[in-house]
């Protein structure tokens, strides 16, 4: 059972007038609770020929390696969010260069966006969401210990197709079966 965020009364799934899909609508005050996908923003940071990865200290995928990323906050641009998440998870000083990849994950109502960035210096200081932050040579990337399909795919295309040479932003719809990266 859902409750109205405005008045606390019970809400039900109904199709509002002039709409075409079910929404959570308050039985008392009629408030409509619209739900929309969440945006995850992150970075693929390089320093010389190395790539920054963080080992997750939180669920889901505790102990697996990830590109630094997290949910976009209110009143924040995607570029700001990606920078903030990278600092929070790795302590890295970075400069973002460009948007690199966008993944649609309609099965879990998320959009993942990754920017390319450069580390200013190789000193790292992982925050509480990371067990470890480390720079990996490309041939040392822990492919079997990556956290999410979008992370694996971003690294795949970066390693596989000429790194930054392509100007187009990569885009793919990821299906549920791809969620585990190994
Ligand atoms: Zn209400």
Secondary-structure-derived class: mainly beta
Would you state the CATH class of the largest domain? Alpha Beta
Q: Provide the list of bound ligands, each named once.
A: zinc ion
CATH H-tier superfamily of the largest domain: Nucleoside Triphosphate Pyrophosphohydrolase
- Helicity range: 10-25%
Strand tally = 12
Stretches with pLDDT under 50, minimum 5 residues: none
Instruction: Summarize the main sheet.
Output: 8 strands, mixed
For the termini, the CA-CA separation is 36 Å
Strand content: 35-45%
Q: Estimate the mean pLDDT confidence.
A: 93
Tally of helical segments: 2
User: Topology as H/E string?
Assistant: EEEEEEEEHEEEHE
Task: Please identify, by name, the CATH architecture of the largest domain.
Answer: Alpha-Beta Complex
Instruction: Output the radius of gyration.
Output: 19 Å
Whole-number tally of structural domains: 2
């Amino acid at each position: 059972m859902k409750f109205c965020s405005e008045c606390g009364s019970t809400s039900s799934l109904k199709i509002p007038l002039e709409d075409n899909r079910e929404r959570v609508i308050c039985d008392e005050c009629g408030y409509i609770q619209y739900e929309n996908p969440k945006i995850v923003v992150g970075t693929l940071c390089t320093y010389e020929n190395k790539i920054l990865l963080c080992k997750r200290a939180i669920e889901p995928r505790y102990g697996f390696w990830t590109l630094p990323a997290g949910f976009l906050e209110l009143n924040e641009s995607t570029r700001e969010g990606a920078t903030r998440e990278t600092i929070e998870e790795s302590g890295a000083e970075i400069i973002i260069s460009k948007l690199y990849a966008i993944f649609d994950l309609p099965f879990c109502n998320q959009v993942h966006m990754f920017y390319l960035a450069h580390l200013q210096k190789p000193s790292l200081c992982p925050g509480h969401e990371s067990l470890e932050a480390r720079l990996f040579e490309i041939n040392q990337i822990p492919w079997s210990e990556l956290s999410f399909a979008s992370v694996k795919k971003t690294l795949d295309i970066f390693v596989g197709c000429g790194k930054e040479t392509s100007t187009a932003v990569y885009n793919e719809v990821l299906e549920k079966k791809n969620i585990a990266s190994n």
